[in-house]
Specification:
0% strand; single chain; elongated
């Protein structure tokens, strides 16, 4: 439906899709750690990982608007960007001193931690409101909420 196309996440709610993406990404890195010398095993794992990254980016804006206060959003995003850069530098430097399977295992553990933390976030919010929406619905904005309140007030 058009609403599904606009949401960028199909029939899965963005927060549910994100949990799936983290778990799949951890699985891809586990495959790379276990089978790092097998090109025809590692290559599809990297393709799936790239699809997971794309799916995450399609939903990240919706997740930010749902979980981060607008007033502090840019500050929070910049703090997390700094932490992400620390992880990237750590992963890059690890390849100088450790074996490839070890580096892939570290990346796998980072994705697994992200999956656990995301699931904890969902449970803290009592199953996010976004997962309870019907398939294909999109998150309403503050303007939409204001219009609804205005209509109710006028009625």
């Amino acid at each position: 439906t058009p609403a599904e196309a606009r949401s960028g996440c199909g029939t899965l709610a963005p927060d549910a899709l994100t949990a799936v993406v983290y778990v799949l990404s951890a699985g891809c890195m586990a495959v790379c750690a276990a089978q790092f010398t097998e090109l025809w095993t590692v290559l599809p794992a990297f393709f799936v990982l790239e699809a997971c990254v794309g799916a995450f980016h399609a939903c990240s804006g919706t997740l930010r608007s749902a979980h981060l206060p607008e007033k502090y959003m840019s500050t929070i995003i910049n703090i997390f960007r700094l932490l992400l850069n620390v992880l990237v530098v750590t992963g890059t430097k690890l390849t100088d001193s450790k074996s490839l399977p070890f580096c892939f295992a570290v990346c796998c553990s980072w994705y697994a931690i992200a999956a656990v933390l995301h699931i904890v976030l969902l449970n803290m919010n009592g199953r996010s409101k976004m997962t309870q929406r019907p398939a294909g619905s999109i998150v309403s904005t503050k303007k939409t909420k204001k219009r609804k309140k205005k209509k109710e007030k006028n009625s």
